[in-house]
Automatic annotation (TrEMBL):
<dbReference type="InterPro" id="IPR023631">
    <property type="entry name" value="Amidase_dom"/>
</dbReference>
<dbReference type="InterPro" id="IPR020556">
    <property type="entry name" value="Amidase_CS"/>
</dbReference>
<protein>
    <submittedName>
        <fullName>Amidase</fullName>
    </submittedName>
</protein>
<dbReference type="InterPro" id="IPR036928">
    <property type="entry name" value="AS_sf"/>
</dbReference>
<dbReference type="Pfam" id="PF01425">
    <property type="entry name" value="Amidase"/>
</dbReference>
<feature type="domain" description="Amidase">
    <location>
        <begin position="273"/>
        <end position="384"/>
    </location>
</feature>
<feature type="domain" description="Amidase">
    <location>
        <begin position="29"/>
        <end position="192"/>
    </location>
</feature>
């Protein structure tokens, strides 16, 4: 769908929210989030609403959910109003927001480019100011990539810390629930409802992953590196001691095998309607070798042990969020695949090691938002947010 140079609020809303989930929901008008609105990615259950998972057959066949996911109950019981359910890449298999069945949500920060996925509608709705925050899921970057593309704060939580009950399982050993906000104050306010009060924290031990800044293209890494070094006293580290390809060779078979074991029966049902990109992804997933999965499992544990030890109780690793600017809305499927593989070199770090990661807006490059990310040890979300709270608006500082 073509998007005007300056899309209207109505145009953004039409593509950000799904037609089958536009009814709002308010359980209580009291609590720490009273007066705020939020959106929910359309693969997270809300009682009485259908979850289509970005697929037309699922929309046709799925009954309304009988229970609300615990991750949604938290903001509802804190007084926030759910404004509706938002678009997602089909079966969460995407990093761009391109869904040929339901359209591409608009990136308000760069309307000629994609908003990122698979939490695409959630990012679009928050960036446009349609809601105060939005829930999404993150397996291999599905919150972090949209956050970078749309100039938002996005939190991938520690694996297992926030319940994924009532959430479409995509790759169960990677899946997490998280949220997107426009500013750190809102990130802090929402996160406190999940983790408890977030107060000042001692200065962290900052580590700039120097080799990670060699991954972005078109000069983006060079633009981000001085910003990363300006965050505070830091040391430079080599993140990919085993080599980038070792990380990817560990991630790929595990994530693809999880995907096929979990959703393969749905995707391969005779007559199933799947987009080209998603059909190709499941075809690839079906070819994963058992020996590659078996080899990757202990490799994952070794990578996790190294990073957890490196981070300790006070460490934060700083790295770019994604490797490039958002693709154009008309980018072909081949370009999507190539982009995904390169950005996975960055997003797979927290995904493999099950660690929390906070994506923060850092600057603009050729008119598009570009983000940095903070990775902490297990259950360090409060420390990441408290530190980000001390940084102020990095994008505004970079423009000064």
């Amino acid at each position: 769908m073509d998007v005007p140079e300056r899309p209207s609020r109505e145009a953004i809303e039409r593509l950000a929210f799904v037609d089958h989930g536009r009814d709002s929901l308010l359980l209580t008008g009291e609590g720490p989030l009273a007066g705020l609105s939020f959106a929910v990615k359309d693969l997270i259950d809300v009682a009485g609403y259908r979850s289509a998972w970005g697929n037309p057959d699922r929309l046709r066949d799925a009954p309304p959910a009988i229970a609300t996911a615990p991750s949604v109950l938290v903001p509802l019981m804190a007084g926030a109003r759910m404004a509706g359910k938002t678009a997602t890449d089909e079966l969460a298999c995407g990093m761009f927001g391109m869904n040929p069945h339901f359209g591409i949500p608009i990136n308000p920060a760069a309307p000629d480019r994609v908003p990122g996925g698979s939490s695409s509608g959630s990012a679009s709705a928050v960036a446009a100011g349609l809601v105060d925050f939005a829930l999404g899921s993150d397996t291999g970057g599905s919150i972090r990539a949209p956050a970078s593309f749309c100039g938002l704060y996005g939190l991938r939580t520690t694996f297992g810390r926030v319940s994924v009950a009532g959430v479409m399982p995509m790759a169960p050993s990677f899946d997490t629930v998280g949220w997107l906000t426009r500013n750190i104050a809102m990130m802090k306010r929402v996160s406190a409802c999940y983790f408890g009060p977030i107060g000042p924290a001692a200065a962290p031990r900052l580590m700039v992953a120097r080799d990670a800044f060699d991954i972005p293209e078109h000069g983006i890494g060079a633009a981000l590196l001085p910003i990363a070094k300006s965050l505070g006293a830091s040391t430079e580290i080599t993140l990919y001691e085993e080599g980038v390809e070792h990380w990817l060779e560990t991630f790929r078979p595990l994530q693809l095998h999880d995907l096929y074991a979990t959703l393969g029966a749905f995707a391969t049902e005779p007559g199933r309607r799947l987009s080209q990109a998603v059909a190709e992804r499941f075809a690839l997933a079906s070819t994963v070798k058992a020996e590659d999965v078996a080899k990757a499992i202990p490799n994952r544990e070794a990578l996790t042990d190294r990073l957890v030890a490196l981070l300790g109780d006070d460490g934060i690793i700083v790295l770019p969020t994604v490797h490039d600017l958002p693709p154009r809305r008309d980018a072909p499927v081949t370009a999507q695949i190539a982009f995904r593989e390169k950005t996975l070199a960055l997003t797979a770090v927290a995904s493999l090691t099950r660690l929390p990661q906070l994506a923060i807006p850092a600057t603009t490059f050729e008119g598009c938002p570009v983000g940095l990310s903070l990775i902490g040890g297990p259950r360090s979300e409060k420390r990441l947010i408290a530190f980000a709270d001390t940084l102020g608006d990095l994008t505004r500082k970079a423009a000064a």
